[in-house]
Amino acid sequence: MNQTSWELHCPVAVNNDSPRVMLAHGEGGRMMRKLIRETIVDILSSESLAEMDDAARLPAIDGPLAMTTDSFVVSPLFFPGGDIGSLCVYGTVNDLAVSGAKPLYLTLSLILEEGLPIAVLQEVLQSVARAANQTGIKIVAGDTKVVPRGAADGLFINTTGIGELVDPVPPGPQALCEGDELIVTGPVGRHGIAVLCAREELALQPAPTSDCGSLVAATMQLRHRLGTRLRTMRDATRGGVGAVLHEWSESSGLTLAVNEKDIPVSPDVRGASELLGLDPIHIANEGTMLIAVESGASEDALEALRSLPETQYSAKIGTAITRQATPVTITRMFGRPQPLDQPQGAPQPRIC
Amino acid sequence: MNQTSWELHCPVAVNNDSPRVMLAHGEGGRMMRKLIRETIVDILSSESLAEMDDAARLPAIDGPLAMTTDSFVVSPLFFPGGDIGSLCVYGTVNDLAVSGAKPLYLTLSLILEEGLPIAVLQEVLQSVARAANQTGIKIVAGDTKVVPRGAADGLFINTTGIGELVDPVPPGPQALCEGDELIVTGPVGRHGIAVLCAREELALQPAPTSDCGSLVAATMQLRHRLGTRLRTMRDATRGGVGAVLHEWSESSGLTLAVNEKDIPVSPDVRGASELLGLDPIHIANEGTMLIAVESGASEDALEALRSLPETQYSAKIGTAITRQATPVTITRMFGRPQPLDQPQGAPQPRIC
Amino acid sequence: MKYLDEYRDPASAKKLVEAIRRQVTRPWTLMEVCGGQTHGLLRNGIEAELQGTVELIHGPGCPVCVTAMESIDFAQQLAMLHTTSTNNVVLASFGDMMRVPGSHGSLLDTKANGGNVKTVYSPLDAVELAKRHPEKQVVFFAVGFETTAPATALAVKQAANDGIHNFSLLVSHVRVQPAMEALLQSPHNRVQAFLAAGHVCAVMGYESYEPMVERYRLPIVVTGFEPLDLLEGILNCVRQLEQGEARVDNAYSRGVSRQGNQAAQDIVREVYEVCDRPWRGFGIVTNGGLQLNQDWRHFDARSRFDFIRSLPVIEPAECESAHVLAGRIKPPECAAFGKACTPDAPMGAPMVSSEGACAAYYKWHTP
Amino acid sequence: MKYLDEYRDPASAKKLVEAIRRQVTRPWTLMEVCGGQTHGLLRNGIEAELQGTVELIHGPGCPVCVTAMESIDFAQQLAMLHTTSTNNVVLASFGDMMRVPGSHGSLLDTKANGGNVKTVYSPLDAVELAKRHPEKQVVFFAVGFETTAPATALAVKQAANDGIHNFSLLVSHVRVQPAMEALLQSPHNRVQAFLAAGHVCAVMGYESYEPMVERYRLPIVVTGFEPLDLLEGILNCVRQLEQGEARVDNAYSRGVSRQGNQAAQDIVREVYEVCDRPWRGFGIVTNGGLQLNQDWRHFDARSRFDFIRSLPVIEPAECESAHVLAGRIKPPECAAFGKACTPDAPMGAPMVSSEGACAAYYKWHTP
Amino acid sequence: MCLGIPGKVVQFTQQETPFAKAEIEFDGVRRVCHMACVPEAEVGDYVIVHAGIAISRIDADEAQRVFQELAKLDDDDGWKDEP
Amino acid sequence: MCLGIPGKVVQFTQQETPFAKAEIEFDGVRRVCHMACVPEAEVGDYVIVHAGIAISRIDADEAQRVFQELAKLDDDDGWKDEP
Ligand code: SF4
Ligand code: SF4
Ligand SMILES: [Mg+2]
Ligand SMILES: [Mg+2]
Ligand SMILES: [Mg+2]
Ligand SMILES: [Mg+2]
Ligand SMILES: [Mg+2]
Ligand SMILES: [Mg+2]
Ligand SMILES: [Mg+2]
Ligand SMILES: [Mg+2]
Ligand SMILES: [Mg+2]
Ligand SMILES: [Mg+2]
């Protein structure tokens, strides 16, 4: 009546070709502890992280602090010149550095999309470790969350940093004075163009390269050389140099006047921008800053900056002047200052 | 030949019924500055944020620090008993508090999905502001990113906190001794069950309620009352009380023995867990902690805890004992210690 | 909770254990048919408490464990369809099936690889899902014993009634009794009495066991899943065995009647028909499954998506789950148990399901 | 960059401005037909530099600005289809169209509301997208003047050649010359000479302007988009006007010939045919558009998705863009300009497009 | 695959078969479950719910049986074979 | 809608019409563009690219015209009507 066969074929799980992040990696159990211990802590080799406590315990810091946070959502995760791992370290370290602080401690919080290959995570973390090493910041606490496939775009990272403010702290954009000189520390728009080209599969060759990098050495050089003649510094990230100019104008109540021809643009960014109808002054940078120095100090500043390879193409691009009808002006071919608009929305390739 | 009509109908943009987050809100331009100023800073009313600088400048802190980070990816954003806004404050504040620190400063980093209604963002931020107020932590720096629709699940928040470690700092789980007593500060599994029921649209009535709340007062009471008799504290978040027991066993090299009947479970969690085939001991809490106290100190600890409404149902659930074959044991009906497994993966409703 | 807590009373449980201990003169071998019983016996320490009295071996009654690999492979192909065709299928499943390995990983792996997989608590919830998402094709993965078949049958009836055309079933239901008979026919059989599965019997009754008892001369006692239910059932078996009796008895009479649930059986009969079905570890079990009958075949995902070509099933050959499911060995006797095979990295289905014998041993067995 | 930088030389530009200034005896009114010209004139400060010489008014030549609201509404419905049906449409568009308001917000709003909208650089990239995603229906929003029509025509040819069936076009192409004639016929016409659009002419040539010049007795000079190109064209117009001449001249001879690009015209003719088309702010322009001809109609998204019912277009009535597009007023003369209407919260299309006259004024005009 | 939980019928939300539904209480929570298979169940009864449908009405008298047996075990260590 | 950028033809990646393609250089970057509309273009020529296809080959002689005119403006402020 019942012809069941008794051969022994057994339902064994076959492993996936490449291991991927599963929701279970974020649920506080064995798999999560294994991932943290064997992938994250191992690569970052941080003692505080290894304790896997709720909070890192840090020694006392003398003097006032700077604290900054950024989430990194760059897509694709890897782009010419960098990746989300180096970016998330440099981004926060640079924010501390331009604020006048010595970067000390960093937290690293990962949001992983279910299905992310573990190998990708490892590569990103190796990049984090290298950048942290290079900039001398210590990763002291972390967090790992996994969200269902489709609820994130591969991998998001938040880094939060604290640093010690070192005298003299540059007073900031509200202290800008008429006559102050404006310097950009490298060709503009490289990061934004690199990421846009990588993301939109525009198939440009050679692929434009991001400027993703540390500004710690440059800020130290400048502070050492200029002392109190250094007014303010800002890494010109989202919105590019244009956005920083608008913010500083608002803070200072002055008009900032720049010359288009003085603004350095690399040939790849130039070509890509023309093709896509974009203006590099409004495109993001990730290792390039705008600085303002006291009138007459720009030569010293440029000399200091040009001694470092990462800021060798620094250039003076303009001056702070009495407030005009327009907050930011740009001089193009006729030598006549024209309004520089604020960027609106994401740069999108256009054919008009 | 050409019959073009000349009536004047003009292509005016009609506003959406409810304003939503657009990609442009994350691009560093006017729209982003407006969102930050008029929604975020206004609701959080934080001075440091209002400066919109790269980094907050904070006064010197005496003594050693605690620093902790967490990203919050809860879905849905609003659940009975809380929302992502209160959760992201309590989560980090509690991590500082259980580490023995006085919470001081918080950073708040938002990842917004394109299309998120601004009204939702506002409601979340109001909740952030209330929780920050209640726990006395100051929000000093922030960040806002917008990702394309489908690249995030509405809203993710990272909070990173620093606090001042206050003597005597509880030594931590590696200091656990045989005979130490284990206390849980409220009924277990409430947050996880509340969120699961809300997310999976299980339509349970009344919807189970999260314990999402602050542990600052409870930790202060305990420290005040017990001093050095307090061994360690841990908010039993992902993986629930079960995960903390396993971590502590690993840190201390001891076996932790608990009694099932002593573990408080609320009727809604009980009903939902039976229905879904889950074990509350492995379900997340967000305002409930496990603490270990010196042998004999549990009466004092319970008295201190029961004086606060949020920890009034605290109960002693077990003891640390010499290391056995199994790291964590649970005693069920026959009084015989059995192994308590580590949770694996996300709790999923099951019918087996 | 009423009808739960009182059946977990420690004092009563101890009394029953003592009664069993007093009755037993030989180490009788009892099989609990259902994984839910295994779960109850191990989680509550009953199996340990009965050491030295009866031997409890774990039956094939975990439908998750016995669902054929080919069905899981097909479910995975359905969930991935949206990536290669305009068929935007969502595969809805009980949470239990999510971690069970097919030829190429589990449904959780499929999800991580971009498949549309959604966990539901009830097949009726999957119908609601289809209603809310007319742009999708919702396929419910209908696994389970006779206990579960009424719910899936009701789901297609609901879909038909509501005119929901984007709903279908991938049916892999299995029937317990043919598997029990297969075990008894096996040359390796050690089972001397069955603890029959309470909730299967809630639907099917136990009348149909009576011919089995006649033929094989062994006691069959229907039990529930709470400690007192299980202990009462064991005591009943032991008494029958000691007295040389062989009867079908009902130790779960608050939920089970001899004829079972007529309304539930009617619904199942309206929608399904008996068929042969491959069981994991057993091969094809004659009459071992249910399939949609002719009237309802248009709700069958296999015919709706008949352009999907079944891939060759990859049957690996290390784990001993066939022996475990047939009660010939206990999980710790498998060389891989707790070493190469753990709930985090399961080699076989019984280590995956929370009802699976290997998982139950891994979690709750005191070594 | 070669062929860009030399045409931006400040010294040469100044020389041309001076020459124009020397020529002018009356404030001639010139219309630059194309938004790209408007862009070049304002961004580079030429319009300011020429203050007191000629008056430059801005023509209808922004295809983004003149695309009918109904087309945008249809595009939005396509992008939302996947939420209500099994048609998983991706609407691919040039970045330019993303912020232009339809009856219910822009395509960016549609995206924020869950619509499938993807920006591409080239219609050929949309064909690639369709190739990579056989599970989707890719619809390319084919807007633009004669400049762009060869690219979209080539895209359908490529799709047909590669057997890509999940690709189609939502065609909203417009033709410049009928609009220029419409302007000249208007009772409000103030235009005394046209700067014809260089890249339209690169494809179409300028022979067809000759009858227009005869009929309306006004100079038409083809120009490029770089400062020297524009200034040379203006100087040419002014000279003709001052001398009472009316000729078609070509100030963009490095890229434009009298007959235009025969290969491009052939491709366009192979795929498209002339049709009447509603223009935003103009109403229906006779022969004002292109549509797929009978041989290629099967690539028409409107027939492929013919079950979509067009919603009533909501034509609001505040902004003066009809006057702006027809050159009757300049953007700052609109009461909303820079107040209720800004690029962040545009009331009309010309404030949206980076070529739109209102946006160009808002960004670059020195008040 | 047979997790079945006892719950109390609180009220019917739909009466007509085959899609009758009722609110069932499980300790601190209630959920609407399908009642097609327990047409005899009334408000106040307990039913066993599996995968969202009630598969059995609990017989309150039979539910006492094991305790009666236990009482007998106390008395005489006897065991009645017939329930 | 008529952003057109001059670029230099570097090499053909596909020769056959109508889907001929070539790598075009724009300052620091190159992109493969469709060449169907410029069958006369050769490697080394400049073409105007719009939306991914070349719509015109640049005439190198004509490109000098404006500068010749400018030179004449220097000389005599004259303006030749015929190009
Ligand atoms: S322990 Fe693992 S490998 Fe061994 S029989 Fe069980 S499932 Fe198979
Ligand atoms: S400024 Fe705005 S409202 Fe006025 S015409 Fe232009 S687009 Fe319309
Ligand atoms: Mg920052
Ligand atoms: Mg930053
Ligand atoms: Mg910065
Ligand atoms: Mg954490
Ligand atoms: Mg994704
Ligand atoms: Mg933390
Ligand atoms: Mg935490
Ligand atoms: Mg914690
Ligand atoms: Mg930031
Ligand atoms: Mg989403």
List strands and helices in order, with pairings.
The complex is a heterohexamer, with two copies of chain A (352 residues), two copies of chain C (367 residues) and two copies of chain E (83 residues).
Chain A (H helix, E strand, L loop, with lengths): L29 H15 L2 H4 L5 E3 L6 E8 L5 E2 L2 E2 H15 L2 E13 L4 H18 L2 E10 L7 E11 L15 E4 L5 H10 L16 H11 L3 E6 L4 H13 L2 E5 L7 H10 L12 E5 L4 H9 L8 E7 L6 E4 L5 E3 L13
Parallel strand pairs in A: 5-6, 10-13
Antiparallel strand pairs in A: 2-7, 3-4, 5-7, 8-11, 8-12, 9-11, 10-12, 13-14
Chain C lengths: L9 H14 L5 E6 H9 L2 H4 L5 E7 L1 H4 L2 H12 L8 E5 L13 H6 L4 E3 L3 H10 L4 E8 L4 H14 L4 E7 L2 H10 L7 E5 H7 L4 H8 L3 E4 L3 H16 L5 E3 L11 H10 E8 L3 E10 L8 H4 L16 H5 L31 H8 L3
Parallel strand pairs in C: 1-2, 1-7, 3-4, 3-5, 5-6, 7-8, 8-9
Antiparallel strand pairs in C: 10-11
Chain E lengths: L4 E10 L6 E6 L2 E6 L11 E5 L2 E5 L2 H17 L7
Antiparallel strand pairs in E: 1-2, 1-4, 2-3, 4-5
The complex binds iron/sulfur cluster (2 copies) and magnesium ion (MG) (10 copies).
How would you explain this protein's 3D organization?
The complex is a heterohexamer, with 2 copies of chain A (352 residues), 2 copies of chain C (367 residues) and 2 copies of chain E (83 residues). Chain A has 352 residues and is an alpha+beta fold. Chain A folds into 2 domains: 20-165, 2-Layer Sandwich (60s Ribosomal Protein L30, Chain: A); 173-339, Phosphoribosyl-aminoimidazole Synthetase, Chain A, domain 2. Chain A has helices at residues 30-44, 47-50, 84-98, 118-135, 190-199, 216-226, 240-252, 267-276, 298-306; strands at 56-58, 65-72, 78-79, 82-83, 101-113, 138-147, 155-165, 181-184, 230-235, 255-259, 289-293, 315-321, 328-331, 337-339. The longest helix of chain A has 18 residues, at 118-135. Chain A is globular. Chain C has 2 domains: 6-59 and 176-250, Rossmann fold; 65-174 and 260-305, Rossmann fold, CATH 3.40.50.11740. In chain C, the strands form 3 sheets. Chain C has a 5-stranded parallel beta sheet. A 4-stranded parallel beta sheet of chain C has the order 4-3-5-6, sandwiched between helices. In chain C, helix 2 runs parallel beside helix 16 (357-364), helix 7 packs parallel to helix 8 and helix 8 crosses helix 13. Chain E has 1 helix and 5 strands. Chain E has a 5-stranded antiparallel beta sheet, with no helix packed on it. Chain E is elongated and about 50 Å long. Mean pLDDT of chain E is 89; it is low at 78-83. One magnesium ion binds next to strand 2 and helix 3 of chain B. One magnesium ion is lined by residues 70, 91, 95, 237 of chain B. Chains A, B: Belongs to the HypE family. Chains A, B: This is Hydrogenase isoenzymes formation protein HypE. Chains A, B: Residues 53-164 form the PurM-like N-terminal domain.
